[in-house]
Amino acid sequence: MVEPVQHFFESQRLRLSYWTWGNEGKPPMLLVHGNRDHARSWDEIANAFCDQYRVVAIDLRGHGDSEWSKGSLYGLPEYVLDILGLVDLLGGKVTLVCHSMGGRASLIAAGAVPERFHKIVGIEATGLLRKEMPRGPERIRAWAERAKARERSEPRVYPTLADAAARVKEGNPRFSIPAAEHFARWATREVDGGYVWKYDPALQNNPDLEVPYDEYELFYANLNVPILHVLSSEGEVTRGYRHGRPIASFFPDARSVNAPDSGHWIHIDQPAFVIDAMRDFLGDPPEVPRRD
Predict the structure, then answer these.
(1) Domains of the chain (ranges plus CATH)?
(2) Which end of the chain is less crowded, N or C, counting CB atoms within 10 A of the terminal residue's CB?
(3) In angstroms, rounded to a whole number, what is the distance separating the alpha carbons of residues 167 and 159?
(4) Do 10 and 2 form a contact (C-beta atoms < 8 A)?
(5) Tens digit of each residue's pLDDT (9 = 90 or more) over 20-71
(6) Positive or negative: CA dihedral 8, 10, 15, 16
(7) DSSP string spanning 77-115?
(8) Which residues contact 15 (CB under 8 A, 6 or more apart)?
(9) CA pair distance 157, 1, nearest whole angstrom
(10) Confidence grade of residue 233 (pLDDT, cut at 50, 70, 90)
(11) What is the pLDDT of residues 82-124, one digit of tens each?
(12) Measured in whole angstroms, how far is the alpha carbon of residue 103 from the centre of its chain?
């Protein structure tokens, strides 16, 4: 296993963390995690591709070793700024691999500026099957009530890392014990009396106020780069249609693969399947532009 190197950059006055594997001279592959996750959950995927790519995994704002949003707001447009800021830093165009909430933000970013991406692998990433939120006053009132209720909540302290890993395993029973231990190691920080999760508790207030679900289709229709959707047996595979249409049909150039016996975190509980699917889809890495 190749040990990554940690770096930091600034996005909208926040200091954000990212990790790199591989040589800077290789084409960049950007990995974007989901909600209450962190960059190091991609370790196995990164190690599989760092011989061909410079693999880069971001800690989105409020996650991992990145700063928390000072206003405690975490909307998709803010994540889009973080992602595009790192794309700029990596040379302006990347191969993208993304998961869950990070996938929704990534696909909205790519739908807005598709010329910044070569190919995209989305793991349970579209958000097309989420329930529609209330509209108008009801949506703001419900969000404000949730946010105020959590404003003074205290994080749970786990006495040991093993306790934190056991909680990860409880929530994700398909994870192997080593996978749960690895996730917990990088997802926690030490405090008096034990360990707490690194992510900002305010992430649970994420309202998605700025991008209503019925607008996702507009971004996806504009995303004219090749996309592979990796879907799980417990998630979008069994409910893989919206308005009677397959998920891939919302994109100009997309296809889907179904991972058998898998949960939402397919890249952690079925990494070999994801790696094989990615290799088949990505083919040879893109050429790195010459710098005269």
Answers:
(1) 5-153+200-282 (3.40.50.1820)
(2) C
(3) 12
(4) no
(5) 999 889 999 999 999 999 999 999 999 999 999 999 999 999 999 999 998 7
(6) negative
(7) HHHHHHHHHHHHHTTS-EEEEEEHHHHHHHHHHHHH-GG
(8) 8, 9, 66, 67
(9) 31
(10) confident
(11) 999 999 999 999 999 999 999 999 999 999 999 999 999 999 9
(12) 5
Burial class (CB in 10 A: 0-12, 13-18, 19+), 44: middle
Whole-number mean pLDDT of the chain?
90
Q: Provide the terminal-to-terminal Cα distance of the chain, rounded to the nearest Å.
A: 34
Question: Phi/psi at 262 (nearest 5 deg)?
Answer: -135, 155
Numbers of helices and strands, H then E, in the chain: 9, 12
Residue recorded with tokens 């006053």 = 137
CB 126 within 8 A of CB 220: yes
> What is the distance between the alpha carbons of residues 38 and 199, in angstroms, rounded to a whole number?
8
Per-residue pLDDT tens digits for 121-174: 999 998 776 666 667 787 778 778 877 877 777 889 999 999 999 999 999 999
Residue 241 clears pLDDT 90, i.e. is over it: no
**Of all residues in the chain, what percent are helix, strand and coil, respectively (each to 5)?**
40, 20, 40
CA distance 251 to 83: 20
pLDDT at 103 (0 to 100) = 95
Burial class (CB in 10 A: 0-12, 13-18, 19+), 135: exposed
